[in-house]
Amino acid sequence: MPILMTDFIKKSEIKNHWYIIDGSNAVVGRLATVIAKIIRGKNKPTYTPHMDNGDFVVVKNVEKVKFTGKKFSNKKYYRHTGYPGGIKETNPERLHEKKPGEVLKLAVKRMLPVGPLSKKQLTKLKVYSGENHPHEAQNLTTIELSKLNNKNLLRN
């Protein structure tokens, strides 16, 4: 019986692609799962868990992302200042007013494994309010969320 070996990709063989996603009326959690899969490289047949094999993702119109139900006002994010009694809480509504892309970045960050590799992979996520972004020269491939699953967009 022949021994089958798994071929791991080498650093010199990695080719990164650029994708663009329109965040208009996109559900935050569903958008975050698509992004997390792409920036980890799980959409490629050459996926290697211990290497940064992922692609770059540009998200435009991030100020128009939506939550389902009452999560936009009722969900809570906690952080600690490091001092005794220093726990702070906020909700997506207040966070979205201050920094529109932070809600999506937090969702994607929490879908990645904890460690130095995930911090490096998170830098491949580029989030912009509005239509304009400085990545036109990268030959962006468009991903349409509504074609992946009809539940990815919130319809009123």
Judged by helices, strands and strand pairing, the structural class is: alpha/beta
Number of helices: 6
Report the C-alpha radius of gyration, rounded.
18 Å
At CATH level 3, the topology of the domain at 16-66 and 104-148 is Ribosomal Protein L13p, Chain: A
CATH architecture of the domain at 16-66 and 104-148: Alpha-Beta Complex
Report what the structure shows.
This protein is of the alpha/beta class and 156 residues long. The chain has a domain at 16-66 and 104-148: Ribosomal protein L13 (Ribosomal Protein L13p, Chain: A), CATH 3.90.1180. Helices cover 28% and strands 15% of the residues. The protein contains six helices and six strands. The strands form two sheets. The chain has a four-stranded parallel beta sheet, covered by helices on one side. It has a two-stranded antiparallel sheet with strand order 3-4. A hairpin with a 6-residue loop joins strand 3 (77-80) and strand 4 (87-90).
Using brief descriptors, characterize the structure shown.
156 residues; alpha/beta; Ribosomal Protein L13p, Chain: A; four-stranded parallel β-sheet; two-stranded antiparallel sheet; 6 strands; 28% helix
Summarize the structure.
With 156 residues, the protein is of the alpha/beta class. The chain has a domain at 16-66 and 104-148: Ribosomal protein L13 (Ribosomal Protein L13p, Chain: A), CATH 3.90.1180. The chain contains six helices and six strands.
